[in-house]
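Practice set, problem 2.
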Amino acid sequence: MPEVPADVALEEVWIVEATYAPDAAETRPRFRPEHLARIARLMAEGVVLQAGAYLDLTTSLVMIRASSEEEALGVARGDPYIREGIWVELRARPFGRVVRREPEVTASS
């Protein structure tokens, strides 16, 4: 029996954990539209797969398609939340994302 079913694949991506500054609740609203627009653009480009934050404003999680930890952190470092000190620490960890394989299309005779 195969370890992974034929119609399933594992994609290595990166989860970036971004820690909020203690005053993020006060400083975040001014830069949130710019941040969200950037995340939406990166999602449309296929770079960011998922993103969100814990509702207690302790940490954001961003799932990034990148070839290395440094590349994933580079994407996160380009965010306005880093520039403005809203995120104060970044960590990246490799993550095995489960995806469905598209069925192969065969030509009919």
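Problem 2, part (b): a different protein.
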Amino acid sequence: MVREKLGRRSSASHQRISAVCNDFELCDGKCPMRKELSFGKCPPSHRRSATLTGLALSLAFLLFGCGHTEQEWQAQLDKYNQLGQKTQGQQTELDQAKAEVARLNGELGKQQTDLKAEQSRSGDLQKLLDAAKEQAALLDRIKARFEALREKLKGLTEIGLEVTIRHNKMVISLPGDVLFAAGSAKLSKPGERALSKVKKVLLSDPGLTERYYQVAGHTDNQQLVRTAEEFKDNWGLSLMRAREVLLFLTNAEGGAGLNVKHWSAAGYAEIDPVAPNSSPEARRRNRRVEVVVQPDITEMLDLKSLVNTPAAP
């Protein structure tokens, strides 16, 4: 039934299109549209008219030939329009989501870069922490050695010997007035006894025996008078006193001596005082001989924290 209806409607459409062509003299009633809907031999104006008529008939067929009302078709069109708008809205949301994903990816990349930088800083801080721990451990070992040396020489403190830190070096300071007579560079008997005890302590500790030392002679600021001809000035006197102490400590006669290759002597005259030369007591403190323990490269630390009192200037 449907095919018969469609056939009849198609035939009727052909008849109407042919009727349109019969209205024009140029076709002479021979327009092949009647047979095969081909407008190849019709004039352009006829073809346009026939085409418009065919479209109108086709639309009418679509609207009314399928059994749907105009309202139903309009509702369907509205539905399609709504779907189109919804699709457009979804596309907009999709574009926004893509932009958000791109933004989040950018932030993630930045956070990863920041994390790598933070990890690098953390690694550097860990290295610094490890180095600080090593220095702290080294300082503890030096402090233990310092306290041990101070304890071993404690018996000489009654004559004025001091174990302290000066110029970031461990120093055994011996009073010049105990070691030498005024203006003299010859060791006194009390001075030799004091140095013998120092020598014994240094030889008893292999860690101290193998260290390098400097013997430093110091004077007050008083000009040399009685022995000026012999020493010329305080430079000569301080240096010769340091030399005498060095020779005594490294002398192996009557027992073992310290390794002379690890020792040196220097004279500082009055230029490195431990107190102002403003009183007899202060000048007495400045007349001294120091046995300076030379630090090795692993001990280039601030040793002032080893003593409770501020180091001497």
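Answer key, part (b): Residues 2-66 form one domain. Confidence is low (pLDDT under 50) at residues 1-7, 16-40.
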